[in-house]
Design goal:
Elements lengths: L2 H35 L7 H24 L4 H28 L3 H37 L6 E2 L2 E2 L1
Helix pairs in contact: 1-2, 1-3, 1-4, 2-3, 2-4, 3-4
Length: about 150
């Protein structure tokens, strides 16, 4: 992978990490509030959101590594399924309190982070694999032709 491609892959990874981190921070309060309303013991309530979030984080790091290593879709599929399931759990935990209270606007707002997380889970590995493949293709063949106003330069 060329230095430019590595920079792009790092940028995409950091951006995904920021989205995930912000989603985790946002979701922690929602899930803690829900757990306390459900009378989950106070020592257990703050553990639920981080457990789900750490599952998502571990799976994202693992699928990123596998995708950049050129792993096939068959290898990635089980991890991506668990990742999607954990992301859906994050979504449900985030919106449950608002849905049960009938606060649909708040529930919609609270769904933004987890929906972005689901999008990252689905698009991330393929995007990283495509970036890696594109840099390999560019480095192995003749330089690409640049078209300016319909003429090849």
């Amino acid at each position: 992978m060329s230095a430019n491609s590595q920079t792009v892959a790092r940028f995409v990874t950091v951006t995904m990490g920021l989205v995930i981190g912000l989603t985790f921070l946002f979701g922690f309060g929602n899930v803690l509030n829900l757990a306390l309303k459900l009378q989950v013991p106070a020592f257990v309530a703050p553990l639920v959101a981080p457990a789900v979030d750490l599952t998502v984080l571990g799976l994202l790091v693992g699928t990123r590594h596998l995708a950049l290593s050129g792993a096939s879709e068959e290898v990635l599929r089980p991890a991506r399924r668990l990742l999607l399931a954990a992301s859906v759990v994050t979504l449900l935990l985030n919106v449950a309190d608002s849905v049960f209270a009938g606060q649909w606007g708040k529930a919609a707002f609270e769904s933004v982070g987890p929906l972005l997380l689901i999008g990252v889970c689905e698009a991330g590995p393929g995007l990283l694999r495509a970036l890696s493949a594109a840099s390999t293709d560019l480095g192995s063949g003749p330089p690409p032709r640049v078209f300016v106003c319909g003429t090849g330069v």
